[in-house]
């Protein structure tokens, strides 16, 4: 793929030059693994799961994990046009030449992208069509949160990993290494893989033609119910400090997982059911990881991740420690997944002193009745208090997420959405500031392993009607905006989310009809899917319709760790509009995930990675944790048999680190309920919006020294855009610990400025940027700190002190070296320069943001010279020229191709032309660097 970089859109994504990417000598590696994400680079590089597995696999010296993402449609077409297979980012190795290709499946709409990537790699789509020789075709495995009900994918995947991958993936790879050494067939490998906890081998189950919606039938008596496998204590698992830093991503920041699992019990939420129990990372571990990760990545923003960050028991303690560092180093902090009312005044006060980001809350339903049905655990009072809290601390905008089509929903519930938004808008009271409220509507999709897995999804027509109803209610209301998710996309998600194996043929047909990147609106089309359904003799209603509780389900052969009895009880409580409390702070409801007095967890017990291969010993911390009796252990309600009698503790001999249970830092949250500040007349006291810039340490505003730093930009780094280059340098400067000075105001930024932007793909030995530090450092020290942290192809050439008046001075001319692949082509290029130089003038028109612009580009060629190779009969090997920008600037790439126009169009010339900037000339007519 690297040979096609000049042709590919966003080529830096395929150059393999990211900071912290793992590069190994293939000659010293036994197992080559490609970690695949079936979406764009931008999205894939934001996915934490891949970063964790990348670190674990590469910690083994003889294993090498590389990354691969789904190339965007245009890039995929270019690969096919040039018969070039999809390859890894680190080494440009075709996927078919690896030993294992492992996909991360995060949602149902990515199914066709899996086939897209297999197809681009030249790998047979179905397990049944792959060769038995494991060296002839990689083992195809998949993991991720959507795999517990991914039956439509089963014919295409050799091995599925259910649950956490930190333990399961290394186990699979160890078996694969053994299989390769022993010369096993693919069939033998899959048979042996069934013994690994957490592994589902789809080919060892067969569908029932007479009952296609029932669970597949096991082919082996000793392998009937693959179960989700989890890490019992995430403090014992490896976490990537040296994360690969993307050159561009949706969430380009440090993602730090502070907890895994959620027990809030929202009845629509798949993740909240199948990621149980809650496992919090210790404060000491989090702070150590934060120090290591920031030092190794240079990110300027931290995101504390979990399914419900606001429910982290030690959130205030954690935030206060982190916010001190953020203030010192101008680092932003974001808290995604905040439940209404889940952060108190002191946290929001401290966060408002830093960069103020947007705020999103998810009441999910407009009426209290419907919020109780879905067990949201949020009251209207909670929501209005949270809105008041935002107003009080200077926020003036908020996003509210709602679902439509929830079980038992009526038009009155829909009307309550508008009423709720108006109440939030006016939360401060009459005469006080209003909030700008943006409401987002998302159609409800029933998910497996939830209490709503049996309910029907409303039709597309009904979705449109309900959206229209809310739109009408919003019309003309000030300070309210409405957005909604595409109904057809939700309809397709509903078809796929509860599908059986018959849907595999539909997925393949939809892919053959061109359906890829289905979760992107610009690529989404429902028609190919409906055509594929019809061709397969299926209809959407079969999959979106109601299921009878207790009836066989396509995913019923898999163990998610949640009992069907618990789901049925929760369904009945939903119909009764009854709330179920969070078991981490309240009574245990016997869902089946934890080891309790009533019985062991439904999931297998396996050693954590840190304990594997070592004697089972409890640390002092584990013993102390085991002695803490939480509310969930002290009281058992709604046990399946109504009592605890007869429960057998099969886990009595296991150390605490292996037991499945909620693991919290504090037994209760360390936050206080919000109490709004009011004046003597009872009105909310609101901080004026944008009343002051974020606080910045005085030291960071000192301008002690200013430097011009010259560097090269060659190889893969030449494909960095100017914005990407700025981000790369900003992170490298932070990692180097250089004392950067910052601007003041509402968005403090490092004081950096740049020379003219170099066109993507043009190399240079003469690039520069200006940097201001708040402490004076010797140029050599700056270079020594910075050079090891730059991507391949970038190197510091020279650093000089500059005064303020010359800090941003631009060159009047630049020197370049131009070559083409063959000596004959380069000779023809020299002839083009000869003819161009002989012209009195040449007007060239180019498109700009302000419209067409025409200029005499002959005046831009100051001088040129052919470079001859004396060892090849004085053949011309290159052309050097100086471009004069004193009377106007033109992209040197466009300038060069305009001169070479007799040799072909830009589409022909671009991939063959190599252009290198060699020097810059300023007003003093000296060559730099």
Q: Sheet with the most strands?
A: 9 strands, mixed
Shape: globular
pLDDT averaged residue by residue:
89
User: Strand tally, please?
Assistant: 28
Low-confidence stretches: 610-649
The secondary-structure class comes to: alpha/beta
Oligomer classification: single chain
Notable characteristics:
six-stranded mixed beta sheet, 26 helices, 28 strands, alpha/beta, single chain, 929 residues
Question: In brief, what are we looking at here?
Answer:
This protein is α/β, with parallel strands linked by helices and 929 residues long.
Write the layout of secondary structure elements.
Layout: E1 31-37, H1 41-44, H2 48-58, E2 63-69, H3 73-81, E3 100-104, H4 111-121, E4 139-143, E5 159-161, H5 165-182, H6 186-193, E6 199-200, E7 205-206, E8 217-218, E9 254-257, E10 259-260, H7 270-274, E11 279-280, H8 283-297, E12 301-305, H9 315-329, E13 332-334, H10 345-352, E14 360-364, H11 368-373, H12 380-392, E15 397-404, H13 411-425, E16 436-443, H14 460-474, E17 480-484, H15 487-497, H16 503-512, H17 527-535, H18 541-544, H19 564-575, H20 620-627, H21 631-634, E18 705-713, H22 722-735, E19 752-754, E20 763-773, H23 779-786, E21 796-801, E22 813-819, H24 823-837, E23 843-848, E24 851-856, E25 861-869, E26 875-884, H25 892-899, H26 906-909, E27 914-921, E28 927-928
Parallel strand pairs: 1-2, 1-3, 3-4, 4-5, 9-12, 12-13, 14-15, 15-16, 16-17, 20-27
Antiparallel strand pairs: 5-6, 7-8, 10-11, 18-20, 18-21, 19-20, 22-26, 22-27, 23-24, 25-26, 27-28
Helix pairs in contact: 2-5, 4-16, 5-6, 8-9, 8-22, 9-10, 12-13, 13-14, 16-17
